[in-house]
Amino acid sequence: MLLAAAPAVAAAAGAGEDWARQKCDLYAAAWQRVLETADLQDIGAEFLSAHQRFIDRGCDPEVRVCARTPPEIALADLLTVLSMNEGMASTFVPFGCPK
């Protein structure tokens, strides 16, 4: 019985990896649209570089991006909504500041 379940567990693990990769691809595409259409003049270099590092590392959950100013918070909110529109949980996005 246990051996019969092994392929299903392996398939579920593979599906999870595919979804993680798909989420990152969708998020990166949303970020590209933001880069092409939004005025990011008031977004700090630290925010932008940390955010790009998140994407470059395959949406690594260890990378945190701290939104400190009202424009950065608005951008973080926008990216959170865009990701949720694609079916991701709000916990996917990299936004959070150290305490």
Care to count the β-strands? Answer: 0
Q: What is the terminal separation in angstroms?
A: 48 Å
Proportion of residues in extended strands: under 5%
The helix tally amounts to 3
The percent of residues in helical segments reads 55-70%
Q: Classify the secondary structure makeup into a structural class.
A: mainly alpha
User: How many strands, which pairing sense, and closed or not: the largest β-sheet?
Assistant: none
Mean pLDDT: 86
Sum up the overall morphology in one term.
globular
Q: Uncertain regions: pLDDT < 50 for 5+ in a row?
A: 8-13
SSE arrangement, N to C: HHH
Radius of gyration: 16 Å
- How many structural domains in the coordinates? 1
How would you characterize the overall build of this protein?
The chain has helices spanning 2-37, 45-56, 70-85. With 99 residues, the chain is an all-alpha fold. It has one domain (23-99). The longest helix is centred in the first third of the chain and has 36 residues, at 2-37. The termini are far apart.
Name its key features.
99 residues, mainly alpha, 3 helices, globular
What would you say about this model in short?
The chain is an all-alpha fold and 99 residues long. It has helices spanning 2-37, 45-56, 70-85. It has one domain (23-99).
